[in-house]
Amino acid sequence: MMNHYERERFAQAHRQNLLREAEHERLLEQLPRSRRRVPNIALRLKLSWQALRMRRRQDAQSRSAGEGELS
How far apart are CA 66 and CA 52, in angstroms? Predict the structure, then answer.
């Protein structure tokens, strides 16, 4: 289970990811139609990788917290 600090940190990272994605979309909208490209796959992979890492870290923390309760 995450404590208050971890929840706030996770929420802040999530907000930052959303803001970056929104800024990227805004910039894409400003480009002329002929210059638009497929959304940056590397950015999407990076964001997905970060989300997966955070989720795995949370799972590990919840498992270690659950083991402590069994003792």
Answer: 21
